[in-house]
Fold this sequence. Notes:
Elements lengths: L1 H18 L10 H5 L7 E3 L2 E2 L1 H8 L16 E11 L4 E16 L6 E13 L5 E3 L4 E10 L5 E9 L16 H4 L10 H6 L7 E11 L8 E13 L11 E6 L1 E10 L2 E10 L3 E12 L3 E12 L2 E15 L2 E10 L7 E12 L6 E11 L5 E9 L1
Antiparallel strand pairs: 1-2, 3-4, 3-20, 4-5, 5-6, 5-7, 7-8, 8-9, 9-10, 10-11, 10-12, 12-13, 13-14, 14-15, 15-16, 16-17, 17-18, 18-19, 19-20
Amino acid sequence: MRVKQFWMRISLGAALAAVFPPAVGATPQFARRYQVDCTACHSSPPRLNEGGLRFLAAGYRLEGRESYRTVPVALWHTADLEWRHSADLVKGFPGRVELIASGPVGKSRAAYFAEWRAVSLSLDGSGRRQNRSGRFEDLFVRVPIGSDAQWALTVGQFRTLSQVDVSLRLSLSEPLVFSSGLPGARSTDTRLTGLRAFSASGRQPAVRAEYQLAKGRSPADGWFAAATLPLTGELTIPLSDGASFEFEARAKGVFLETYRRSGLTSVGAHAFVGDERRRLLTAVVTHDVGHRLAILAGIGTFHVLGVRDTRLSLGAEATISPRIVGAIRLDHRTGQGRDPVVVLYGNGHLPFGPPSFRQALRLQIEHRIQPANHTTTFALSHVF
């Protein structure tokens, strides 16, 4: 209990520090701070272009450009409508109200990121509303180490996978090869049982050591190798029972990855070795064709208690304009006797307002084609 209370205080303190940063800190709304258009960092928001990857790797710094004072947080709220054709179910609900803050830590090379959901609602498998309001999507600090910053240490709550940032996806659902989990040991507490599971795109308290070799023309390019120690738990400022603060001082295992990135192309391999005889091995490729077509391919083998299956995701996103993208993705998992899933989705982004008051509307539409699980989902967001 003392460990839990200690980490809860750390979580709350870090959140307040992020939401109310010092004057030298930055804001995640960099379009307002630097008075640039969204296309300076995004090929189609929230997906990053080469400029956005460079900006992120530099710790949210844009050298040589004047900055302006602005609201030090971003506000993202979304209304969702889900139509489950197979179950004859239609429900609308406010999916999220989210506060986001990020930027350099003072004049140091370190950078922070905090993303907290004051409202977090979704539908579970039975169609019931699930309330996880008060949880952190992310809450971490990344510190470069050494004069050449080849080493970096990340501490907090974040996704273990770094080659592909699933948070920046255009689809509503995550690619199966990243999101499908490996269950952990059962607990008398069903919430704790869920938190003991591991997936590459899952968030949990963790520590990551990263090494970058042979940097290219951008700080985002080069060879990367990382080892992450994910822990069981979830850092929250709880506003619902589904977002209770949980922390177990036990590691799920170790997640290893190595990849090479050049521009928007990357090739990588990942492995997880954990407790409960859990094993994972994946290979992932991303490639951009003429800034018009973004391709993702991932395949992996998953082992749990002697049972093995293969999971894969293949996707392509076509940029019609910086504001409109249409896409298709195929997800499949062997050993379950189910047909592959075809996901069709579109993303529309409409920025508006003067540079000092920049904001945007975003519409996402996703259609899932699979026998007995046929679903269409709409999400309308306002981001400030």
